[in-house]
Amino acid sequence: IPWEDLRYIFGEIMYGGHITDDWDRRLCRNYLQTYLNATMFEGDLNLAPDFPLPPPLDYKAYHAYIDDKLPSESPKLYGLHPNAEIDFLSQTSEKLFRILIEISPRDTNSINHGQNKTLSRDEKIRTVLEEFQNHIPEDFNIVELRARLDERNQY
């Protein structure tokens, strides 16, 4: 296999021709040098830690491989520390609570709500949360969706 020629075609002609930054072109060349060589066919190639390249299969077998063999999505697959997900979820929840505080009334005593009904701050927040909850769509029933598909093909 003419690896050097293939790297040139991919890195300089097909994709490299669209790269305008010298550092990006250099990065592309390094990726091609690392991944496009004879070692691709020697032993097991891992796309990421604990994420092996699947064997040659037909279309249905690839779907079965993806469903059965691949690990669940985790920060480790992206080369991140396992705590990255914890940090992301913490930041997301902090942002949610910050938004809730921003939309809550500034007057901490009470709020006049329509027909002379007074809502406390906690009741107002609960009302807003219930409104949000009413707009959240139901979970997908994967078994039902798969049953509705007549034939799973590549298109």
From TrEMBL:
The record's section on Pfam families has: AAA_lid_11
Give the Dynein heavy chain AAA lid domain ranges.
1-84
One annotated Gene Ontology cellular component of this protein = dynein complex
One function term, GO molecular function aspect: dynein light intermediate chain binding
Q: Name one GO biological process term.
A: microtubule-based movement
Q: What is this protein called?
A: Dynein heavy chain AAA lid domain-containing protein
Organism of origin: Adineta steineri
